[in-house]
Amino acid sequence: MLNRRTLLGALSAVAMLAASNGAAFAQDSYDIALISKGFQHQFWQAVKAGADKAAAEFGATVTFEGPESESQVDRQMDMLAAALSRNPDAIGFAALDSQAAVPLLQQAKDAGIPIIAFDSGVDSDIPLSTATTDNVAAAALAADKMAELIGGEGKVAVVAHDQTSRTGIDRVDGFVNRIKEAYPNIEVVSVQYGGGDQLQSTEITKSILLANPDLKGIFGANEGSAIGVANGKQELGSQIVVIGFDSGAAQKGMITSGVMNGAITQNPVGIGYETVKAAIGALKGETLPPIIDTGFYYYDASNMNDPEIAAVLYD
Amino acid sequence: MTDTAAPAAQKSGPRISGAFHRLLAFSGLIALVVAFSLASPNFMQTQNILAILQATSVNGVLAIAATLVIITGGIDLSVGTLMTFCAVIAGVILTYLGLPMPLGIIGAILAGAASGLISGTVIAKLKVPPFIATLGMMLILKGLSLVISGTRPIYFNDTPGFNQIALGSVVGQIIPAVPVPNGVMILFAVALIASFILGKTALGRYTFALGSNEEAVRLSGVNVDRWKIGVYALAGGIVGVAGVLIASRLNSAQPALGQGYELDAIAAVVIGGTSLSGGRGTVLGTLIGALIISVLANGLRILSVAQEWQTVVTGCIIILAVYADILRRRTL
User: Fold this and answer.
1) In what order do the strands lie in the sheet with A154-160?
2) Residue A165 burial by CB count (10 A; 0-12/13-18/19+): exposed, middle or buried?
3) How far is CA A92 from CA A108, A122, A131, A292, B279, in A?
4) Cβ–Cβ contact A73 with B under 8 A
5) How many domains does chain B have?
6) How far apart are CA B312 and CA B325, in angstroms?
7) A111: nearest Cα among A134, A135, A87
8) Which of A16, A33, A105, A180 has the most CB within a 10 Å radius?
9) A97, B167: Cβ pair inside 8 Å?
10) How near does any CA of chain A get to the CA of B81, in Å?
11) Rounded distance, CA B79 to CA B142, Å?
């Protein structure tokens, strides 16, 4: 008796889900599955918003999923496998570990499902295109702004998140190389890594400041690093120039209050939008560029509220 | 029921109720499969069923390990990070030291058993409650995985064939139509072995006895500590198998992964009808519980249900499953 009751309950629950889903099937539009690196972080929600925008514009249905943390590579594989079973028209994929994904991507290719990579590339020629930020160029812009704010000479340092991820490598290289090439009077005295952890980055910043009393500025290469740098500056009562990366409520607040001079923001909304747009382009048989640069902006207290900038910032 | 029959019925109580619950969980699984099949033609496809089984393999093995510990009335919160630790050990042996593949597999399993031995000893000899002891182990192992690996994934590119442990298909070579991944066959093998140990060996009998009434077992002159440590070590060894499976599937040991996986394992155990208070449980039930979790996640994805709602539905199912168990016990 109980068996039947639970069975009926489960059946009716799923039937309701199915009914709500039936509408999506009825539409004659593209079905695109996006598998992201995360879900609940504001950055990824902004990517999702961009994808939804493109979906509404081009008449597609988009699903967006990602694991709880960026370490859960196997969970992302399960999501990709389920997305493949759903047999969507196209897949957008931001790989947590590009090696692990290759067998499933091959499966997608064999099934004739076009794949667009987003946020970070995949070491494979299967994705037709990659919608991503040019992190080298973005960090070079940070270097230009740093040079401008410190008057073109003096010592600066970098606090980055890690030395292994693509974004970590590109942002440090982009910043350091730009300084070397364009600003002979500026010296990068230290590049340190705090794992993107605010507290660790704070401690690192304080040690850099104590070791280099004549330091002019520090570049924090991601959200956690940047907040850590600004915290370290505040704790020591230092007056250095701080340039951050990405946005988020904390960083925006620090820029408003002047602890941080400005920051580079990626365009997560643009990443989501361009991914869906490229997927639809692929389905229509258009040729796609291998890299779609989704752009980046420098923002500070003066332009934070400009519509163009406000649109790409997130809390 | 007559008075004379009552003691006999009571004696075989756990067995019968276990079988009954298995039926309940099993019919829940069937209901989900039928419902998803009706809702989407993409669900009941060979490739998707294989994807569900593949997704179950790691959690299933972890859940079997958790089942053994939970039947003793204990809990093991370290299964997730221990799995990662074992994967990292395999990485060290195969990639850093360049030793042959079987040594990496054995090393991972031994590392798991050794960790279980330590947990069991801390619990049995130092009398630290299992929740705390394994919480501590969870953090120790998480940290050690990061230290040993240098916080970077260890890839198995130098060990050709390593990813075939989970991804290859021996079954597919014999019957090409159903290429069941080896990882799934390993899950079934682990389930069979664990069932055998629970049902047919002294270790299994003491596992149940410890969970039912540890004091009675102690008073009857049994070395309770030794058996308890044995159960934790066995569970640790099984977690080692899960470590090999996940490393093989990802072709890498991902040192930051694993925390939180113990909760999925415990959920599978509970859905499968094993009592958190100990003394009662089956490996088959756990296997079904793990399948329910995977089917639910996969089915909801196939139906394009938004991710936030997937989480809500999964939570509801866990509570419903345990509530059904409570209702059933009340009516018995």
Assistant:
1) A186-193, A154-160, A215-220, A241-245, A262-266, A296-300
2) middle
3) 11, 12, 10, 13, 48
4) yes
5) 1
6) 20
7) A87
8) A33
9) no
10) 12
11) 11
The CATH number given to A28-133+268-295 is: 3.40.50.2300
Whether residue B32 lies inside any domain: the answer is: no
Q: What value does the mean pLDDT take over residues B260-269?
A: 93
Residues of A in contact with B331 (CB under 8 A): 2
- Chain A CB within 8 Å of residue B329 CB: no
For residue A181, count CB atoms less than 10 angstroms from its CB and return exposed for 0-12, middle for 13-18, buried for 19 or more.
Answer: exposed
pTM for the model: 0.77
**Is the confidence at residue B180, as pLDDT, over 90?**
yes
Q: Mean pLDDT over residues B66-79, rounded?
A: 96
**Residue B264's closest chain A neighbor by CA?**
A75
Residue range B253-272: mean pLDDT, rounded: 91
The answer to whether residue B5 scores a pLDDT higher than 80 is no
Q: Determine the Cα–Cα distance for residues A46 and A285; give it in Å rounded to an integer.
A: 28
Rounded to a whole number of angstroms, the distance between the first and last alpha carbons of chain B is 13
pLDDT value at residue A195:
79
Q: What CA–CA distances, in Å, run from B81 to B103, B115, B258?
A: 21, 11, 5
The answer to whether B155 contacts A99, with C-beta atoms less than 8 Å apart, is: yes
CATH number reported for the structural domain that contains residue B81 in this entry? 1.10.3470
State phi, psi for B143 to the nearest 5 degrees: -65, -45
Write down the pLDDT at residue B240.
Answer: 98
| Per-residue pLDDT tens digits for A60-97 | 999 999 988 777 889 999 999 999 999 999 999 998 88
Choose from A85, A98, A110 for mutation: most chain B CBs within 10 A: A85
Q: Are B262 and B141 in contact (CB under 8 A)?
A: no
Answer whether B305 sits within 8 Å of A17, measured CB to CB. yes
- What single-letter amino acid sits at A60? A
CA of A18: which chain B residue's CA is closest? B39
Per-residue b or e along A246-263, where b marks 16 or more CB atoms closer than 10 Å to that residue's CB: bbbebbbebbeeebbbbb
- B154, containing H or E segment: strand B154-155
Residue B167 forms contact with A (CB below 8 Å): yes
The chain B residue lying nearest A108, using CA atoms, is B47
Q: How confident is the model at residue B177 (pLDDT cuts 50, 70, 90)?
A: confident
Does B42 sit within 8 Å of A87, measured CB to CB? Answer: yes
Q: Give the residue from A32, A20, A101, A110 showing the smallest Cα distance to A67.
A: A101
Quote the domain boundaries for residue B166. 42-331
Mutual angle of helices B224-250 and B202-219, in 10-degree steps: 140
Query: Under CATH, which number does the domain A135-266 receive?
Result: 3.40.50.2300
B-chain CB neighbours of A69 within 8 Å are: 256, 260
Asked if the C-beta of A13 comes within 8 angstroms of chain B's C-beta atoms, the answer is: yes
Task: Copy the structure tokens of residue B264.
Answer: 């999925």
The domain locations on chain A are 28-133+268-295, 135-266
Query: Does the residue B15 lie in any domain?
Result: no
ipTM: 0.76
For the cut 70, the answer to whether the pLDDT of residue B31 exceeds it is: yes
Rg (CA), chain B: 20
